[in-house]
Design brief:
Blueprint: H1 2-13, H2 39-47, E1 61-65, E2 70-71, E3 76-82, E4 88-93, E5 99-101, E6 105-107, E7 113-122, E8 133-139, E9 146-150, E10 164-167, E11 173-178, H3 183-186, E12 191-196, E13 207-208
Parallel strand pairs: 2-8
Antiparallel strand pairs: 1-3, 3-6, 4-5, 4-7, 7-8, 9-10, 11-12, 12-13
Amino acid sequence: MSFFRTSLVVCTLIFLTQACGSSGGNGGIDPNFDAGTTDSDLLNDASADAIATMDTTAPVTTISSKPNSITNETSASFEFSANESNVSFECSLDDAAFSACTSPLELSGLSDGAHTLKIKATDSSDNVEATPAEYSWTVDTAAPETTITASPSNPSNQQIAHFEFSSDDASATFTCSINSFLALHHETSIFQAVARTPSRSPPSMPQAI
């Protein structure tokens, strides 16, 4: 009696499984029906072919290798990856149209000035990265110029010398030298100032006086 009631419940919920026959001497029960089969088993079997993976998450790109933020190199190398497998990448340099690219990416012939590279990924479900990864850097190949704007009179009887100098590059730092400290007392002295920039461009020719 318990078997019959359980079978009827299963037949009522999942009639497509053919656990119940349309007629027969078993009161409508399939003689091959397994009494140990549960409702969950039948539901899983009936829906097995309908299960699919839904992916609506866009990949995220990470730039792992890039040039210095200020450089005198007119070429640049980038390495990048995404947090998903089976993705494709597109790159855009200085707001140009995106085009297919791969890692590592080699750029050459870069002009002096600021540059920005943007990279976006697309996964196998066609989810496109909404906010591309990007990196900005500056190419500076021009050597700075140094100008001495103030110096002692020549000749001078002063043993203390005051110099002022500047560069046409606001980011420049200076290296100064004098041929001999003792020369300030008796002989001709030569003062030199050399400007250098963070890009490590060749230093300017020394400005001497």
